[in-house]
């Protein structure tokens, strides 16, 4: 598996180098299934920040100068077009020419901007990136942290006044699992490069308070998805992909915090979370996308990002437990990816297949949500875990 994953890691970046560089600056906001760019497509912070993280991570690992060049390009574009110099934070999206499009401050997008900036500094030691990451962190804590109930509010207007214009939720649903998962991820990465007491405080609070006390159900070990401001649960759906993703990301957070008692507690939790996802694992080795226990509805799509996360999550569970069946499930995840998700003709991965393994032949290869982050990170994690340095 190692050699195949190493090869795929290179293949992913070769695709993005070839097909997504916008000669006008930055990267195209959309490329279709036939690798045709849409020069008029809006550009999202999620896509651009994930590109920044991915190429920064690739450069840090390989020292390939081509990856550094594209990480530099992503950083420069975000700095010039996404940063809100007046109010702080980043825009959700800009038009193809860089003019702001959606200026609301979605915490999900802020988190990925922080993830990209912190990884770029980790890879390059560019002081401007560290300064930008520190400033963004302080803005999020000042503007979006809920000091009464803990956690972070989902979104704000451009000037950080209250809004109900959420991307991931709406109305009374002021907090979400997804946003908090993708905040603890960059906060943890920031703590790696800047071990500041305030960062440590918020990372620990998100792990011990937000996730362990509110987001993770203490009876099922699935994560709850949506909440009111005071953490009242307003959802019943199960997201198997997010469960398995969180199982390894939260353990990574505990590792970075380097607290033995917390690490032991998180290890136990991580294994329970990985174990409960097995109820959604199909005989073909792929996790069901989502399940609603109230209605019985199951979304049986086999998603590229879910397969990426289960590859890492089951391998992590194998490392933590020594149980061979987790290793076999990681290997079977990779076999599914190879067999059904890799587009050997046009490159990159299909977005998904259905339960009968028919791939999404018409779905974009690149858009606001189809980015190099999940699959390149999965390859990196497996490489790093099999051959740690």
From TrEMBL:
Its EC number is 5.1.3.11. Belongs to the cellobiose 2-epimerase family. Pfam families: GlcNAc_2-epim. InterPro entries: 6-hairpin_glycosidase_sf, 6hp_glycosidase-like_sf, AGE/CE, Cellobiose_2_epim. Keywords: Isomerase. It comes from Siphonobacter curvatus. HAMAP family: Cellobiose_2_epim (MF_00929). One of its GO terms (biological process) is carbohydrate metabolic process. It catalyses: D-cellobiose = beta-D-glucosyl-(1->4)-D-mannopyranose. The lineage of its organism: Bacteria, Pseudomonadati, Bacteroidota, Cytophagia, Cytophagales. GO terms for molecular function: cellobiose epimerase activity. This is Cellobiose 2-epimerase. Catalyzes the reversible epimerization of cellobiose to 4-O-beta-D-glucopyranosyl-D-mannose (Glc-Man).
């Amino acid at each position: 598996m190692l050699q195949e994953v190493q090869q795929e890691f290179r293949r992913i970046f070769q695709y993005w180098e070839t097909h997504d560089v916008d000669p006008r600056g930055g990267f195209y906001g959309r490329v279709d299934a036939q690798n045709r760019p849409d020069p008029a497509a809006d550009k999202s912070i999620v896509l651009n920040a994930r590109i920044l993280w991915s190429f920064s991570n690739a450069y840090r690992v390989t020292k390939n100068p081509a990856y550094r060049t594209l990480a530099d390009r992503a950083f420069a574009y975000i700095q010039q077009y996404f940063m809100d110099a007046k109010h702080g934070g980043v825009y959700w999206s800009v038009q193809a020419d860089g003019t702001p499009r959606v200026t609301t401050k979605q915490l999900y997008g802020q988190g990925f901007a922080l993830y990209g900036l912190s990884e770029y500094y980790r890879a390059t030691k560019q002081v401007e990136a560290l300064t930008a990451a520190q400033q963004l962190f302080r803005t999020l804590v000042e503007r979006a942290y809920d000091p009464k109930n803990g956690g972070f509010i989902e979104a704000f207007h451009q000037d950080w006044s209250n809004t109900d214009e959420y991307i991931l939720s709406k109305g009374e649903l002021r907090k979400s699992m997804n946003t908090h998962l993708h905040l603890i991820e960059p906060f943890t990465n920031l703590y790696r490069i800047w071990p500041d007491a305030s960062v440590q405080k918020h990372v620990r609070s998100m792990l011990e308070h937000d996730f362990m006390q509110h987001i993770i159900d203490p009876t099922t070990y699935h994560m709850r998805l949506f909440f009111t401001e005071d953490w009242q649960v307003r959802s019943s759906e199960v997201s198997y992909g997010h469960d398995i993703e969180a199982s390894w990301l939260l353990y990574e957070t505990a590792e970075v915090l380097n607290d033995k008692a917390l690490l032991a507690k998180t290890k136990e939790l991580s294994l329970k979370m990985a174990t409960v996802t097995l109820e959604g694992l199909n005989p073909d080795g792929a996790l069901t996308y989502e399940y609603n226990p109230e209605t019985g509805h199951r979304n049986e799509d086999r998603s590229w990002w879910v397969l990426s996360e289960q590859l890492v999550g089951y391998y992590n569970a194998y490392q933590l437990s020594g149980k061979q069946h987790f290793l076999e499930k990681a290997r079977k995840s990779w076999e599914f990816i190879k067999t059904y998700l890799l587009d050997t003709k046009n490159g990159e991965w299909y977005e998904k297949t259905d339960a009968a393994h028919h791939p999404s032949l018409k779905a974009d290869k690149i858009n606001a949500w189809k980015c190099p982050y999940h699959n390149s990170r999965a390859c990196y994690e497996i490489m790093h875990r099999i051959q740690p340095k």
